[in-house]
Design a protein that fits this description.
- There is one protein chain.
- This protein has 319 residues and is mostly helical.
- The chain has three domains: 47 residues, no CATH class; 165 residues, no CATH class; 77 residues, no CATH class.
- It contains 13 helices and no strands.
- α2 packs across α6, α3 crosses α5 and α6 packs antiparallel against α10.
- It is found in: Membrane.
- It is a multi-pass membrane protein.
- Pfam families: Ca_hom_mod (PF14798).
- One of its GO terms (cellular component) is plasma membrane.
- GO terms for molecular function: monoatomic cation channel activity.
């Protein structure tokens, strides 16, 4: 009985684990959304203090609205593995950016990389606009006649003079007038936030539909392809750590024991170049990655590197 209960429990645990593994993209985006909401609340409550004057409101509010979005975009590109696969070494060999001379395919890959990096900035802009704090400060400092007429239409001249002070409690307007202007600013901010959310959802749906429509493989084969790429990356990371550990141990043993190192098979430079290229599917080959295409080649060059090291002009400093 105990064995049966344990088996049933393990089966349930594996089912839950498989569910989370299959939904890890959704979980990742949800976690990113929570971090974005938390970060926005911290910014608006702790560090954001609207100066409430005509000269500083707009640049100050716009900096808090767009600054974190720009930083998140840069970080999204910086941590993009796909971008570095294309960019690394392209100054010495520009054809790495457009393998086989397919410029349209290269542009499509860059668009995919950029759109992936835009997820976090769009989340930040949406959350910040729905909250309205940064937008209220930025727009209230504009001296443009269209903006002033929009908020102070059929109001006294004092409204024009005190509009920049509305986000603060230092306004000389009555509490009712101030609340009315504040609600108008917040409503505009939230409308703009929802427009960004709706537009992003529509663009994402159309982009996914176009990508699937232009797919050269069926839905199930595409699903298998994605699973294979994930597993290959996980296995590569594990195998690379294990192999690098063995190589380090072999080199250290040779150094401390003061003897020649034992033979150690290692891929040559061209092999690394081939498996590092960004792979595009071809019906004539039907491989699922550059690694599979390389290992299934019949004319592979098995000549190992004489010494598996990297050469830089300025050397490498290890810390």
């Amino acid at each position: 009985l105990a064995q049966s209960v344990l088996t049933h429990t393990m089966d349930n645990f594996q089912t839950i684990l498989r569910f989370f593994m299959n939904q890890k993209a959704t979980i990742g985006y949800s976690f990113m959304a929570l971090l974005t909401i938390g970060g926005e609340r911290i910014f608006s409550m702790v560090s954001f203090q609207c100066p409430c004057n005509h000269d500083q409101n707009f640049p100050y509010g716009l900096t808090f609205l767009l600054g974190p979005a720009a930083v998140l975009l840069v970080l999204g590109l910086f941590f993009s593995t796909r971008m570095w696969r294309l960019y690394t070494g392209c100054c010495l060999d520009p054809m790495k950016l457009c393998p086989r001379g397919n410029c349209f395919g290269c542009l499509r890959v860059f668009t995919s990389i950029f759109s992936g990096a835009c997820v976090a900035p769009i989340m930040w802009l949406s959350v910040a606009l729905l909250n309205g704090t940064f937008y209220e400060c930025a727009v209230s400092g504009l001296d443009d006649n269209v903006v002033v007429d929009l908020f102070c239409k059929n109001k006294t001249l004092r409204c024009r003079e005190e509009l920049a002070r509305v986000p603060c409690d230092r306004s000389k307007l009555s509490s009712e007038e101030r609340m009315e202007l504040l609600l108008m600013l917040r409503a505009q901010s939230q409308i703009l936030g929802w427009c960004i959310i709706i537009l992003s959802a529509i663009v994402g749906l159309l982009g996914t539909c176009y990508q699937n429509c232009r797919s050269k493989v069926s839905y199930l084969q595409l699903t298998f392809w994605k699973r294979y790429v994930e597993k290959e990356k996980e296995s590569f990371d594990t195998f690379a750590v294990d192999y690098a550990t063995k190589l380090a141990e072999r080199n250290l043993r040779s150094f401390f024991e003061n003897k020649d190192p034992a033979p150690f098979p290692f891929p040559n430079h061209m092999a690394w170049e081939e498996i590092s290229a960004y792979y595009t599917f071809s019906r004539s080959e039907q491989y699922y990655s550059t690694l599979q295409r390389y290992v299934e080649k019949t004319d592979r060059d098995f000549t190992p590197e004489k010494r598996p090291v990297l050469e830089f002009e300025d050397g490498i400093e290890m810390s």
